[in-house]
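User: My collaborator sent over this chain with a note saying "see what the structure looks like." That's all I know about it. Can you take a look?
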Amino acid sequence: MKRFAFFVSCVFAFGIIPLPTARAQKGAQRLSNEMIRIPAGYYHPFYKVIGIDSERVEALLMDATPVTNAEFLEFVKANPEWRRSAVSSMLAAPGYLKKWRSDFDIGDESLAYKPVADVSWFAARAYAAWKRKRLPTIAEWEYAAQAPIVKPVKANGAARQALILKWYCRPNTTDLSEVGMVNQNAYGVCDLFGQVWEWVEDFNSIIIPSESGANLGALCGAGAAGALDPMDYATFMRFALRNSLKANDVNDQLGFRCVQ
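Assistant: Without extra context I'll predict from the sequence alone. Here is the result:
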């Protein structure tokens, strides 16, 4: 948690920008159950690897939106060992599902179709396995996220980077929107940016360079060394965050989605 707080204070916090037209709860629930086909292609790693210019990403299905509180509640009811009062601190740090009223009660009805947060990598991975899915790899997530943004405005290239950074730089907020309300890319995947940061399977597989010799030092600039595009601050922020996490960490701006 200290590393996550350091990341937020040292770099930026982000908020949300709702789409101009609101989606009814029924529509949000329908959307949250969809998966989008991402075609095969090549991902150029953000951090350069000697001898590797690109990594092939096979075609996959990706959740159209982040997993919601309502969906995660179904998982907890079916797997009570993951209820708040029973989960081991080794698997989820204090604060796990802290917004919920109790083990099997979300409480605030408005949370149902909003992204679930305060879940650890272990919990996200268990949910994915229960759904016969898995967490995306860094390459898969970043590859899908490279698509042009089509809502709320059309943006690609530098304009897309600027828009994402604008979302990231808005004031820190825990008041999330219903899934599918913030943005959508050309594949039809929603809310990759501007809602919750998202767990990936191999979140700790890349060690960002650090002038101080410690990973935390990377969060304030040294980590730009070796990056594919040192000026792509939005992508750098995601890698810096991943580099700061432990598998049992939880935070009210950290959620996930699944792939097949």
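A starting point for your reply to your collaborator: The first strand starts at residue 35 and ends at 38.
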